[in-house]
Amino acid sequence: MKHFLNELISAGNRRKNFFLLLVVLVSSAMLQAQNVAVSGIVKDVTGEPLPGVNIMEKGTTNGTITDVDGKFTLSVKGTNAVLTVSFVGYAPQEISVKGKRNLDVTLKEDTELLDEVVVVGYATQKKATVAAAVSSVNNKDLARSTSTSAANALVGKVSGITARQKSGQPGTSTNLEIRNMGTPLYVIDGIMKDETAFNALDIHDIENVSILKDGAAAIYGVKAANGVVLITTKTGKKGQKPQINLNAHMGWQGWTKYPELLNAYQWKWGNYMKQANDGNLTGADNIANAKADLEKWRTGYYNPATGEDYRGYDWKDNFVSNSAPQYYVNANISGGTEKTDYYISVGHIDQDAVFKEYNYNRTNLQANFNMQLTDKLKVGFQTLGKIEQNVNPALPGGDDYFQMRNSIFNLIPTMRPYANDNPDYLNYISPTHDGARNMAAYTIDNAGKHQKDFRTIQLSANLEYKTPLPGLTAKGLLSYYYETLHQTDNEKSWNEYRYDPATQEYKVASTKTDTYRGDVRNHKVEMMGQFTLNYDHIFAKDHHVTAVAGFEFFKEDRKYLTVAQSPVENPFVENITTNANNTVSNSVRTITTASFIFRAGYSYKEKYIIDFAGRYDASWRFLPGNQWGFFPSVSGAWRLSEEEFYKDSKVADWISSIKLRASYGEMGDDMAKNFNSSYPDFAYLPGYAFNNGGAIISSNPLGNGQDAYTTGTAYKGIPQTGLSWMKISMMNVGFDMGFLNDRLKLEVDFFKRKRSGIPATPTDIIYPYEAGYSVQRQNLNSDQVSGIDGMVKWNDRVNDFNYFVGVNLTLARQKTINNYGEVFLNGWDQYRWGQANRWSNVKNGAVWMWETIGVFQTQEEIDNYPVNIDGANNVNLRPGDLIFKDVNGDGLIDDYDKRPLGYAATDYDWDSGNANKNPLLSMGINLGFEYKGIDFAADFAGGFMNTFIGDWHVKYGIGTDQMGYVYNVVDSWQHEDIFDTKSPWKRGKFPAVRSNNPSIRDWNDFYAKEINYLRLRNLVVGYTLPVKWTKKALIQKLRVYFEGSNLLCWDSLNDFGFDPEISSVTGFDYPQHKVYTVGVNVTF
């Protein structure tokens, strides 16, 4: 070669060789520009070939996909070409050819990368270097659920979450809390929202959810007192060809559990037994008539000619469906170029309730666009939209679902829905217990229509600029949100009939006249702006410094307008006409907040980590001078497993990672989320309250025949100038460990949150009654929540078999620390009513009740029992009645024998006095596997250490106008001959059915059951067809699956037959749905 070059540049050959050199250079350039065939194979991290992977030459439309063996061949332009390799569920890669002819590519699952990076306050961090208590769950785990609610999909999948789904009514969701501290703050793509916005998200649009459980939430300030849920939605990937995903399923729903109700014969039998036990069924003729009547109900005797009808009717079976349909479809497209990416998604859910003509439907729209305008400037735009609708019959009382549940229980089975079974004529049924009416009347055509339309749109834009200073980035975010609610109610009148078999006529027996028409219109506008400077730089390879500083503002405007008319003047005109029956109310509200935020972090060799964060918040609720509050936090971690001495030890062979963590944070709470809270708007200002007290009525003042009235006005009272922030401190200590190369992971956290300055009215200050003022509330009380949460998960692969199993637990309990001004006359009063330093007391949700120590077996035992149980020397007791413990030993059962039994509430509302009563202990179990296209997963969620206290129908059995449950009537103590009270007693589980039974006269633990349950929330079995079967149809992935929700539940309420998560003491709640679903996932 050297000789050849010398010849080229030798003097004698310069002219001739110039042309030769030119030919060589041109030939080389032509060779560089020629197409080059590149082959290769694409595998996953286990070495398994991946079929159907996209292989694209960057900057062109030239591409191909891998075959069934993961192999590909692509002709590219030149040896310097760059290939983009992408596949659904995996992180894309860019690979430079650099003269290579054969490539070996390994793709890593997207979920693995997501697990490595978590979202924290105004930043993202590698999970390994996070010092705070943060739990996260990715889309793959969320999307296993076919629930209509994001909160429902999250239950049982992450530690720190405590939950209770009190109602399965369509459109409702689980009551989600972090460590039983109350409703958390939700932040969606950097924008603070509420739980309604979170539950409105389409599950398939969510990329990742992070839970900030400790003091690190302080960076979100006043709204973060109960923790923060951070949601990141999906975006496209740069350089990825357009990818279309279709997710669709349909399901059939029915109630999980509902107590067995009495049939007609059982109901009549129970009522006769009750009359006999009460001594109200005596005399041979009366007993004979009762027996004859009962025999007809047993046989279902029916004579149309005479109108005698002893056929029973099962209201629940006829009006509650076991296969109510549910439909869902989501279509999204994602992709990108070298400088842009996009994700556009549309989803729709249509869900019927188990009641006819009750429907909930929702349509979601999401669009995310990002553009790299220059090397330093990046912009993004997002649109989120929702259209939601509820439609059902309009029923009296305002809660249309309650009226259905109430009627199911209280309509007795001896009644039938239609006169002479003619569906054109509603049968007259006298309103029974709690006003239950004929359910056949509860249709839209007959009763009227309730419709609620809820629409939202959110537009946001973000900007990111890399400044000339290395590591410093300026970010901006602006958001506009508009929400509108339009609700119309039109309650109509209807007739009910009786049929006369003699004349064969249908005669009007009753007319419902309480008509109502209402129109509600609510509007809300939110505007949010955020500007931050973000710094992220590594010095000398080992020193990683991060910082965030910024400003945030928020403004909300709300308008409410309600117009109603009752009774309705013209039932045939939908407009609400002007007359004296009208009521009009409206309100206008504006909220404005401003905040300064900062965050600073440092790590050395990713071994020693410390983070500082803080927020300076302002609230309009307080007197100037008290409006601003500063809320700091600090967290630190030591990754022991990164120390050289540890890496060299034998322990590292089986304990692959150890991280020790601790954090502390301070926050404030102005309770702004509750409009009727301890902090009313501008309570520090003097003024007057309008529409207060009574009214002055004038008779026909305008001469138009109508009276007029003027409402009262009163002075608001002494301004509340002493109120300020409720102060909250949160402490957390925890550790993370990995075993056997992190195949087994363990996370444990110990925590305590203390709230001080809880508003209360001083009891040692008294104003004269004549002053007309109330004592102002002050920041006086305190409480705490403490506990432990953690998770353990095993994830491994054996050849083609990939499997996982995990368990998470959260135990959190509330305690009152201080209750200002408690003064008691004696020790009993202090024990009974004191709240300070109590884990469990009446104010915190435990109920004072009698303790049951047995059941009377014979009348002789009652006669000789030394303790007066019924207050009448036991003359009212019968065998089967309960024996209560004489705690104080005075020989009399009264209030002094009651004790706080059951578990205390976990989220006590100091304003309303209501106790939420989530389980103290929550648990989740997740397991599954994948094997050659087959996938299986099961998610369990459980709650323990909670109390159900049955009342009313649970205890009282039945009445002449009241339905009953089978268990407390059929399985009650009863005489062998129910008509003969002298016949021997037959033992049962429940006391005898009779009026004024001493066993049910007050709270006792016989009807209080500890709630422990473990529910199979989701069971999924799927199969992904081989690509070689689908590629001819241009389908990259095709998966079919079956999913069951709430298929099984092991619980401690079998005696009552209730769903263990309901909250009603009567069992009237709408239970959760058991759902059978079939679905398909398609990727083009």
Automatic annotation (TrEMBL):
Cellular location(s): Cell outer membrane
GO biological process, one term: siderophore transmembrane transport
Position of the signal peptide: 1-33
Domain TonB-dependent receptor plug, first and last residues per copy: 127-228
PROSITE patterns: TONB_DEPENDENT_REC_3
GO cellular component terms given for this protein: cell outer membrane
Family stated for the protein in its record: Belongs to the TonB-dependent receptor family.
The protein's name: TonB-dependent receptor
Organism: Bacteroides intestinalis
